[in-house]
Amino acid sequence: MKTPSVSRGATLRAIVLKAALSAVAFAAIFLVLSCTPKKAGAAQRKLYIYNWTYYTPDSVIAKFEKEYGCKVVYDSFPSNEEMFAKLKAGGSDYDICFPSGDYVSIMVKEGMLAPIDRKAMKNFANVDPAVLARCDFDPGNAYSIPYYMGAAGVAVNKAKVGAFEKSWSIFGRKDLAGKMTMLDDMREVLGDALAYQGKSVNSASAVEIAAAAKLVNEVWKPNLLKFDAEAFAKGFAAGEFWVTQGYAEAIYLELDPARKPEVEFFIPKEGGPMYIDSMVVLKGSKNKDLAMSFIDFIHRPQIYAEFTDAFGFPATCNVPARALKKGPEWYKAVDLAPCELKKDVGEDLEKYNKAWQTIRFGG
Known about the structure:
By secondary structure, the chain is of the alpha/beta class. It has two domains: 8-149 and 276-329, D-Maltodextrin-Binding Protein, domain 2, CATH 3.40.190.10; 151-273 and 336-360, Periplasmic binding protein-like II (D-Maltodextrin-Binding Protein, domain 2, 3-Layer(aba) Sandwich). The protein has helices at 8-19, 23-33, 58-68, 80-88, 101-109, 129-132, 158-161, 186-196, 206-220, 232-237, 248-254, 288-298, 301-311, 349-360, and strands spanning 45-52, 70-77, 96-97, 145-151, 153-157, 180-182, 224-227, 243-246, 263-266, 273-281, 340-341. The strands form two sheets. Strands 1, 2, 3, 4, 10 and 11 form a six-stranded mixed sheet that branches. It has a five-stranded mixed sheet with strand order 7-6-8-5-9. Helix 9 packs parallel to helix 14 (349-360). It is globular.
């Protein structure tokens, strides 16, 4: 993926200077910078996107660039925490970001987002009402539009592991010690343990959270090679480990296609944290109109089908796209039924932080 250009500020200053020369020059530059589709050869506007790794196909970005005569500059992050910290520290003039629901809530409270211009969306009607009903982190979708609803699961190398139960209990298997990883993600891992114990992944109970941490520390962690939220897919593909918690799109994109039949990906029967990743326009965006065009573009049925086919996703958020899909699905939408949407737990997050410290650092 590409990184933002350091010359962006200089380019904008040059435009301003040229605009001051005459009203005619200003009008010409304004026309070039508009967000409507442009003819080949016109000066390009840039849209700065900050998104998860493995999450928007190059083919979709290329189609948008061609239609709107712009350049998409794509930067990626491995976790909501890293994304949030970078943006709070000043970011890099991004226009669009893709936070999970709990962080949409936090970013709204922090005044980091621009309101969604619903009038600029022709394709909002394509978004599944059942998904919208889950967006209580942003009532009425005033600041966010759902991008994808899914969950992390478990990938197993069937050639190495043999028989296994589709349960979080797989991480308690001593015979697989040193050959397994889980995500380096507090809410995911503790949420898995809470779900396995029959509790809410958003529990506010210090007792329940402590019991979940005890399960991880005493039963799961001794069998793990490491916690890893960035290179788990590469390590699994390389055979470094045989069982990994992670995201299906990352796992299968790293695998040699010939090896895909060796792997099974499943959402554990107990459920676990589920996410709705949403498209938001950052308050400081200099290209809000182009950002809204991109959000609307994503929800064209044929584009959404292309996006989900590229990563082996079910078309969870766009209803008409489901009839247009052609590729495989590494899990089904119905597999998400036992999962629970991960939410902003407010001040109770400190209970999770303390529990996570005991897991990662023994504190």
